[in-house]
Amino acid sequence: MPTAAAGVSVLSKTTMLQEGMFLHIKPSILQLRISPESVTLFNTQASTTIADFPEADLSTADSPTAVIQALYDDFSPNNLRTSIFEQSPEVMLQYFNSNLVNLIVQDRHCRAQNRRYCNLDFDPLSDSQDPSISNLQIGVFDVERNQAEVRFLNYETPILLIFTLENTLNGWRISDIASFRGYSLVDLLSQ
C-alpha cells in the first residue's frame, strides 16, 4: 500500500469500496464513509450526518474502459445530442481530467473571440468532420501505459484512437486522445 506522507496511508477507491471502509478526515470528529451505494460525511461527536450523497455513482470510477464506453454512449457523434466538447465544464469533468477540460474551454473562448475555429475543427471522438461511427470496439486497458485502444469504422474508413486515462480523485478520467493520423488532442489544443 503506497504512503503519501509519514504515517498517512493512501488507499485506492477500489480498496475502500470493496471493503466498505471509512476514511477518517479528523479521526475523532469527521469521517468520510464510502460505500458502493453512497458517500457520507459524518460528525462523530454529534452523531450526525453532515452531507450525504446517495446518488454518487462510483461504479465507473474503477473502470477506465467504462469511462470511454459511457462517453460514446452519452455523446456519440451518431446521436442527435450536442457534442461533449460543447458541454459545460462540469459535464466534461465526468469524462475528462481538468487539464483537458481547461484546454477545451480555452479553445471555445478562442473560437468565440475570433468567430472562427481555432485548434479544434473536427470531432475528436470520430476523428472526422463528418462522423458516422459503426462497429465501436474498446480494447483492453493497458495498465502500464494507462491507455486503451478504440477502433471503429467511420463510414467505411477504419479508425484507431488511443485514449490515455488518469486515475484522479474522482475516478478514471480521459487525459488525452491520440489518432493514428499522428495528432494528440492535448498537443493540438495546446498550440
Question: Can you walk through the features of this model?
Answer:
- Mean pLDDT is 76; it is low at 1-27 and 50-61.
- Strand 1 (3-5) and strand 2 form a beta hairpin.
- The two termini are 39 Å apart.
- It contains 5 helices and 10 strands.
- The chain is globular and about 40 Å long.
- The strands form 3 sheets. It has a 4-stranded antiparallel beta sheet with strand order 3-4-5-6, with no helix packed on it.
- It is 24% helix and 32% strand.
- The protein has 191 residues and is α+β, with helices and mostly antiparallel strands.
Short description:
It contains five helices and ten strands. Strand 1 and strand 2 form a beta hairpin. It starts with a strand and ends with a helix.
Topology:
Layout: E1 3-5, E2 8-9, H1 13-19, E3 22-26, E4 30-34, E5 39-43, E6 48-53, H2 64-75, H3 89-92, H4 98-114, E7 133-138, E8 147-154, E9 157-168, E10 171-179, H5 185-189
Antiparallel strand pairs: 1-2, 3-4, 4-5, 5-6, 7-8, 8-9, 9-10
